[in-house]
């Protein structure tokens, strides 16, 4: 018998979301200021363009105004009056800081800065985290710590919310992370809790808010994609896929193309359910059985960053280094059984600060409190070199999480047919919502 589908009580977070909106707009929490429900936030940030997204309470026009060095100024209007806007701004210069403002009706926001991706191989930093669902207080604590961390962008390993079809939970997420996402882009790997089957509402929501884009900024109807920053290419994968169709063939071609990509030094895969884990779910066996692990290893992928198990774990196996970072708010999991690949494990809310400088990759795993779990580095195919900068907490690990409404389960929707247009795919997915009762099927076999 499947577990109960009762949902956790969602605490009212609208005042927090509105306070962030009011701060951005430079106005009190009034009807005008409250017209922006989510955002504005950055997506698809590249060397010469960015997409700025926002969601309004009612269909209205919106304009993005961008200024930069040397008297640069441009504005982009939304194509139509609607509630959700994704406005692409191009003509920007690499590694350059700009300021943007949003105008909705007669209200104009305060300027917010962002910096484009570099065209050269300069050093950069990013923050990685995941599984921010279920516990708003823990999520907010991690978000506050991340806000103080130096980073050019963010990488999220999925499970942003408990139920991808729950509007209140998405509102809560943006209320907590609104400040972070306003000036630094989040590149996201879809999690199982963003996917709902057969009702596609969760998938539609994810694609709207954080779906991958083409290099020219066009949104893709796929739950996977890649992007480049400096000397590193990131592959954002839907780990819940069956790996028998489009995503596998896309990854094969993308990895092959990256082998000869000029100036590329590092290849990092980001996914929700990774190949190795000592936590409740264990490793994603399908990645090995369907040849994905060997495909990545043979094409010079050196690091896999995953989530799904709500803990910090680091290790190495089958020619791949890995980190499980699923501690951004979800109820913590104890170690179930030690994976042979594991080198470090701690059940704690945390995030990663990652710095890449030429061939060197440095990882600082930091608890939500700000204390350091460990500091590790590597170069290329070399093994991890680590040290613990601070003693681990003396308190016992938290008890295993009761698997009720916060339990992990996942959809396996397969891949969207190639060639479908982004907007058309979303409409088609939404139309499927009338089909039957929902269920979830885990990639690891749990329900």
Task: Show the helix and strand layout.
Blueprint: H1 14-25, E1 36-43, E2 50-60, E3 63-67, E4 73-77, E5 82-89, E6 97-104, E7 107-108, E8 112-115, E9 124-129, H2 136-147, E10 153-156, H3 167-183, E11 186-188, H4 201-210, E12 225-229, E13 232-236, H5 246-259, E14 266-270, H6 285-289, H7 292-298, E15 303-306, E16 312-317, E17 320-325, E18 342-346, E19 350-357, E20 360-367, E21 372-379, E22 385-387, H8 422-431
Task: Give a concise summary.
The chain is of the alpha+beta class and 447 residues long. It has helices at residues 14-25, 136-147, 167-183, 201-210, 246-259, 285-289, 292-298, 422-431; strands at residues 36-43, 50-60, 63-67, 73-77, 82-89, 97-104, 107-108, 112-115, 124-129, 153-156, 186-188, 225-229, 232-236, 266-270, 303-306, 312-317, 320-325, 342-346, 350-357, 360-367, 372-379, 385-387.
Low-pLDDT parts are 1-34, 393-406, 410-447
Q: Could you say which overall geometry the principal axes of the C-alpha atoms support?
A: globular
Would you report the number of β strands?
Answer: 22
Q: What is the H/E string?
A: HEEEEEEEEEHEHEHEEHEHHEEEEEEEEH
> How do the strands of the widest beta sheet line up side by side?
11-10-9-19-20-21-22
Q: Estimate the helix proportion, in percent.
A: 10-25%
By secondary-structure content and strand pairing, the structural class works out as alpha+beta
The major β-sheet equals: 7 strands, mixed
Number of helices: 8
Rg calc: 21 Å
Counting copies of identical and different chains, the oligomeric state is single chain
Average pLDDT rating: 84
The portion of residues forming beta strands comes to 25-35%
Q: State the end-to-end distance.
A: 9 Å
């Amino acid at each position: 018998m499947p577990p109960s589908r009762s949902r956790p009580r969602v605490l009212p977070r609208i005042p927090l979301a509105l306070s962030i909106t009011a701060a951005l707009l430079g106005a009190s929490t009034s009807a005008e200021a409250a017209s922006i429900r989510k955002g504005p936030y950055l997506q698809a940030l590249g060397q010469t363009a960015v997409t700025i997204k926002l969601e309004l309470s009612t269909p209205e026009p919106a304009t993005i105004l961008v200024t930069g060095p040397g008297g640069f100024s441009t504005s982009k209007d939304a194509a139509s009056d609607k509630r959700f806007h994704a406005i692409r701004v191009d003509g920007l210069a690499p590694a350059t800081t700009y300021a943007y403002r949003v105008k909705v009706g007669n209200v104009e926001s305060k300027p917010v800065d962002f910096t484009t991706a570099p065209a050269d191989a300069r050093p950069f930093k990013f923050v990685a985290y995941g599984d921010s669902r279920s516990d708003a207080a823990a999520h907010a604590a991690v978000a506050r710590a991340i806000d103080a961390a130096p980073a050019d962008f963010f990488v999220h390993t999925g499970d942003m919310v408990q139920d991808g079809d729950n509007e209140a939970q998405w509102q809560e997420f943006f209320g907590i992370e609104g400040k972070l996402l306003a000036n630094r882009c989040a590149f996201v790997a879809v999690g199982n809790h963003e996917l709902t089957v057969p009702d596609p509402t969760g998938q539609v929501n994810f694609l709207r808010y954080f779906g991958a884009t083409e290099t020219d900024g066009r949104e893709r109807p796929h739950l996977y994609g890649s992007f480049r920053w400096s000397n590193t290419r990131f592959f954002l994968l839907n780990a819940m896929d069956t790996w028998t169709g489009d995503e596998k063939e896309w990854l094969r071609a993308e990895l092959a193309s990256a082998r000869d990509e000029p100036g590329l030094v590092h290849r990092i895969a980001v996914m929700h359910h990774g190949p190795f884990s000592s936590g409740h779910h264990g490793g994603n066996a399908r990645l090995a059985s369907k040849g994905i692990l060997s495909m990545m290893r043979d094409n010079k992928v050196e690091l896999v960053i995953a989530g799904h198990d709500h803990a910090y774990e680091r290790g190495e196996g089958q020619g791949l280094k890995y980190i499980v970072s699923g501690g951004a708010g979800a109820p913590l999991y104890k170690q179930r059984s030690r994976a042979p690949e594991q080198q470090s494990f701690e059940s704690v809310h945390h995030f990663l600060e990652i710095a890449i400088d030429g061939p060197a990759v440095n990882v600082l795993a930091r608890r939500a409190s700000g204390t350091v779990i460990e500091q590790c580095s590597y170069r290329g195919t070399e093994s991890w070199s680590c040290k613990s900068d601070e003693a681990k907490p003396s308190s016992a690990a938290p008890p295993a999480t009761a698997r009720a409404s916060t339990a992990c389960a996942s959809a396996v929707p397969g891949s969207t047919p190639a060639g479908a247009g982004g907007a058309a795919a979303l409409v088609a997915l939404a139309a499927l919502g009338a089909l039957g009762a929902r269920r979830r099927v885990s990639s690891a076999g749990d329900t």
